[in-house]
Amino acid sequence: MPSSVVPPSATEGDHLVVVAVEVARLAATLVRASVGAAASTRTKSSPTDVVTATDVESEALIRRELLERCPGSTIVGEELDDDRGRNGVGWIVDPIDGTVNFLYDLPVVSVSIAATVGGVTVAGAVVDIVRDETFSAALGRGARRDGVPVRARDTVALDQALIGTGFSYSSERRAQQSEILNRLLPVSRDIRCMGSAALNLCWVGCGRLDGYYEHDTKLYDHAAGDLIASEGGARVDDPASNGEGLSIAASAAIFDELRAVVDG
User: What Gene Ontology terms for biological process does this UniProt record contain (predicted)?
Assistant: First the structure.
């Protein structure tokens, strides 16, 4: 961070994480009511990249509630046009992370909301819709699950690590991802692909996964989860900082080894 930029205060994060949790839980309640009853309304980047009516309803609710609590905020989301505010607070919103799981009634679906001040992520909340768990973090305050502090695992060897990943909607990128799997599977404990980048990052932060990597995630997929994983003690790198379109998080001891295998 440039020396001329004043970092956000911890109290700003404390306030904004409360807002993020409240609004994410409201949206999760809305989404939960449609689990198992959703239908695709359109597609985006490919025929498999689906949008449901509930995605749009959830984002509309989130935007309305955030602007009521923090008038003048900027909001960037997955489904609707950006709201450009004036107060320096920004929100990064994924109304349903795991829409294909939601469409198929599979139990890995989340709502993700991150807060920024001056471009720095200071708070985040991710709600696991089916398990009704809330992961949260404020910058410098640690990570929590349902209000209880959590920590990443102290895994020391990749061959003992359970790694999460996800796949692109691009067939060309999927071919590259299969090559990574062929390298990683023999040298790790095992690999899981569960369909929600936000939850994968939270699970690294609370020790349910030892690591996670995925190419082609969007800012709204990983913004809140990055902070939660980092505040849980994991080492995190994201597309904005690495220029490779790669989200990766892992316990500090295995991060470099995991990264080397992923990079090939």
Answer: inositol metabolic process; phosphatidylinositol phosphate biosynthetic process; signal transduction
